[in-house]
Amino acid sequence: MLKMTNDLKALIGLINNRLTEHSYGEQPNELYEPIRYIMSLGGKRLRPVLVLLAYKLFKDDHETILDQALAVEVFHNFTLMHDDIMDDAPLRRGKQTVHEKWDSSTAILSGDVMLVRAYDLLLDAPGDLRVIIKAFNECAAGVCEGQQFDMNFETMSSVTEEDYINMIRLKTAVLLGFSLQFGAMLAGASEASTKALYKFGVDIGIGFQLKDDLLDVYADQEKFGKQVGGDIISNKKTFLLLKALELANKEQKTQLTQWIDKKEFDSAEKVEAVTAIYDQIGIKELTLGKMNEYFNKGFESLDKIEVAEERKTGLKSFAQYLIERDK
Amino acid sequence: MLKMTNDLKALIGLINNRLTEHSYGEQPNELYEPIRYIMSLGGKRLRPVLVLLAYKLFKDDHETILDQALAVEVFHNFTLMHDDIMDDAPLRRGKQTVHEKWDSSTAILSGDVMLVRAYDLLLDAPGDLRVIIKAFNECAAGVCEGQQFDMNFETMSSVTEEDYINMIRLKTAVLLGFSLQFGAMLAGASEASTKALYKFGVDIGIGFQLKDDLLDVYADQEKFGKQVGGDIISNKKTFLLLKALELANKEQKTQLTQWIDKKEFDSAEKVEAVTAIYDQIGIKELTLGKMNEYFNKGFESLDKIEVAEERKTGLKSFAQYLIERDK
Fold it and tell me: In this record, what's one Pfam family (chains A, B) (predicted)?
């Protein structure tokens, strides 16, 4: 696997340092402690890194926009805190979720105040605050829409490829797009560059989520952090499953539907059987193809940005790192 | 009871018309339908009316700031949607709450997007957007803090008067204060006037909540919409209860504590007994006194605002209407 460069590690270090110093509020402690908790669980800090990398395409004083980079990380963790309640998830990054450690009311209310604090972090942004918050709002509403579409899919008998791509675009990709767009806005980049960076982020984000779906089935268990086949066991409507349902012949469709409907089953047996059907249909190649289509589209947008090629190295190598991850 | 003036009714009509026209978003319908639902349940539209009345102290073209007035109503209804989940409330304005009509996940997520839409409505405000959003954020975080303090009080054995007033200041009063402050900001009023209006709103708001506590016990059942004594039945830590616990002699305190601890009781009997203890201690007069203290402080702030007295008529008569309500 591709290693993270020292430059990237330095940016993550900057963000983590600033996060440690940042105060979300003090009293009542019951409201603010869960925020400090979820923000301390770590993670790759992918989104604020994207803000900084986009800014660094154009300007070198990225230390001046650290608070704005934090805004997207605080927003992202707000969505995680609320999504975990809706998904009834017990764990987040291997630790208890907020609604498990405290309760749902605490997770709702702490999440709400996190969203307010994300807006607070936007306020000292250089540039036109109205334009920035308008873009942020569009992204934030989109993320909520994506989560709702994802919940709707759970009870739908069939989901089209188009609907699925639209869902992951909203739920995952628009925030990556906004992070890059925001970095460009903060640097005072041209509208063309800002738009191209947004497109780059959205396309890479869709590819990124397709890779997630793919790894869940085809990852090397020794390198993968979670159980391979988790999505198969829970009948999650991933790109792989919906394409398999679309392309299966009559016999394959019957088998697939039987596995989906089974209430009692051996997990390993189900994962093996469903994976075998995916293999027959060629789902792996098909998903890889779709994923690369989005990654390639993304890089085309990046090529169009008119800055010296050497300035793009950081962003390119980070995108490459995301693409080649195997867990 | 004091009647609402025709001028006030006209302002409420303006707000309701604009609310009907306003679009929060379309797809997915599951996300936006609950917003249209809760916004259609009505209510006095108190907060946007305060925005307009404060603006009208200084300027006459209040039709130009209707969207900004809606922002505080959308924000207020967002807090109701989430509070109803936390309080497990079945009804809101006599209709099913959102989490009852749909489910908790829907109420969480629709609420989240409502908060984003409230920020959207602020964006075209005349004046310094940074200052406006900073004040809005401070208010929004305060409302969350107030709700958390209120939840904390449920499991605390004693709550001081100071802590209680601070809780209702945050949970209820700061949003009334912000609504007035915001109207003044939108009109480009002086900082002194803006601050005085904020103080007026906060003090009136605290008095308003004390009146709520009082009416719950001492309202005329025929005029009161809800069951008189509801707070007594549920042991809600109101100003009346905490002052009674503070001022009761040994025997009264024993009686009060017995009623609070009883798991099985006749509701009418409990209401009568606890009200009798309140009467012995003089809780009604004490609460009335505290309430009038805040109302008077509020009107002192209003007096200090340097605009022609006749411009203050609308705001004064609305405050008077709120003070003299008997339901």
Answer: polyprenyl_synt
